[in-house]
Amino acid sequence: MTARIGVVLFPGSNCEHDAVEAVEKLGGQAEILWHGDRSASGVDAIILPGGFAHGDYLRPGAIARFSPIMTAVEAFARDGGPVVGICNGFQVLTEAHLLPGALQKNRGLTFLCQTVEIEVASDQSVLTSGISPGTRLRVPINHFEGNYTCDQRTLDELVGEGRVVLRYVDNPNGSVGDIAGISNPAGNVVGLMPHPERAVDPLLGSEDGAVLLRALLSVAEAVVVPADAGTTTANS
């Protein structure tokens, strides 16, 4: 079965077509999900892409969190559906409380656009399934507010439960615990600041991002979610 991946488009998203092209290059099917939709049914996984959802007014992801599609995303995640938030999508997931913690301004108040080395810290997530912990990948980052923060209790839980899925080898932004990506307790919701969709071809400087996206596609092909997963009503 070819995995069908829904890519959410918020006003201000700018990486949705990168995600679509990467998914299709790797053999999946991709479709855009409009932020005003109330259903995400029929897809096998959902990607919240990078960009500046709703202009990042208030806080990055704070307004997008209230888009109708997010109710469907939350329902899809509850039903076990794979959900991955990349960069701004990670911020949206924290604002929606699908993931703990928050993203704040980078250390030094510097916008970062560079390729970094990250290390797989856990294979217990939809984005790292089947990838040996310790595997190092070169993937680009492109953010100003990618400095992950949380309280000590949350950090202890993330580490103790194997929910830190990716770490920076050389921390570029000040993220606590060198965290580049985390998951929810079930491992089906993942947020990360690096952009794997921008690293699927040697012409882009690296194809290491394909390792992560192939893992997502493999899980999406194997996981069976209810046919109506991600379907909500107008009053839900």
Can I get a quick summary?
The chain is of the alpha/beta class and 236 residues long. The chain has one domain (4-222): Rossmann fold, CATH 3.40.50.
Describe the structure.
The strands form 2 sheets. The chain has a 9-stranded mixed beta sheet with strand order 2-1-3-4-11-10-9-6-7, sandwiched between helices. The protein has a two-stranded antiparallel sheet with strand order 5-8. With 236 residues, it is an alpha/beta fold. The protein is built from 5 helices and 11 strands. It has one domain: Class I glutamine amidotransferase (GATase) domain (Rossmann fold, 3-Layer(aba) Sandwich), CATH 3.40.50. It starts with a strand and ends in a 14-residue tail after the last helix.
Features:
236 residues; Rossmann fold; alpha/beta; two-stranded antiparallel ribbon; single chain
Radius of gyration (CA) equals 16 Å
Give the CATH superfamily: Class I glutamine amidotransferase (GATase) domain
What are the segments in which pLDDT stays under 50 over at least 5 consecutive residues? none
Which oligomerization state do the chains in this entry correspond to? single chain
Number of strands: 11
The fold-level CATH name is Rossmann fold
**Residue share in helix:** 10-25%
Largest sheet: 9 strands, mixed
pLDDT average, as an integer? Answer: 94
| Head-to-tail CA distance between termini | 31 Å
The helix/strand order is EHEEHEHEEEEHEEEH
* CATH class wording: Alpha Beta
